[in-house]
Amino acid sequence: MSRMTLTSQENTAIVDKYKNEFCQEVEAILKDVFPKKIIELDKLYKSDQLKLSRAEEVKEAAKASLKDVIAQKEATSIPPAAKRKRNASSSIENGDDTKKEIRFSTKVSCNPVVTELIGFLKPEIRELIEYCNKIKMWIQLLIPKIEDGNNFGVSIQEETISEVSTFCEFAKGSFDDMSRYFVTRGKVSSKIVKYPHLEDYVKYLTELDEKQFLHIRVFTNELKMIYCCMFDIINKNLEKIKQPRSQMSSNLY
Fold this sequence. Notes:
By secondary structure, this protein is mainly α.
């Protein structure tokens, strides 16, 4: 009695060819790309771009981004409305319009240091997510058909997929963190433009940029550790991942 299949032998051969080519691609990534990534990220973490002393440069860049606000600080102040005569409503409206025009023409620039580092890290994160998805699919394709007993190797495969999924979700979450930084900075900047006389907002903006720089520095090291951990886990369990059931055990059935 022939074994039941979903497709013809020709289509099965096409899928098997794709699976073999895909598995070779992933194994090449693990063998050649991962060690290089570990070295590259380690060099970046230790480079002058992410040295701790650069935090002061980030804070100075944050203050420089507010130069238009500082220049318009005097122009945004108008006499209190209570001192104006009631019959001067038109002049009050003109004063408000002038204030809004000045406020909207005031520019708060992004922090160039932080923006540059985020632009550099985003492709690295996207690449890591892609590698994680490929590794999960690679292991999934190596999982044998469901049988009773002798599933220790399969449990190792499933545990490895779970670990890689955790790393992948962590990388995806970093995109949200970067987006939230720009949203938060935009809100603080709008407060500074509206209330230029409150120095607390200016201080908060510089602290926010410094915090994001330190977060980028730590995250770069975490990227390196993710590559290290995935390489180590897979390398230690490669035999069970590729052959979850021994040939001797399969002959018993």
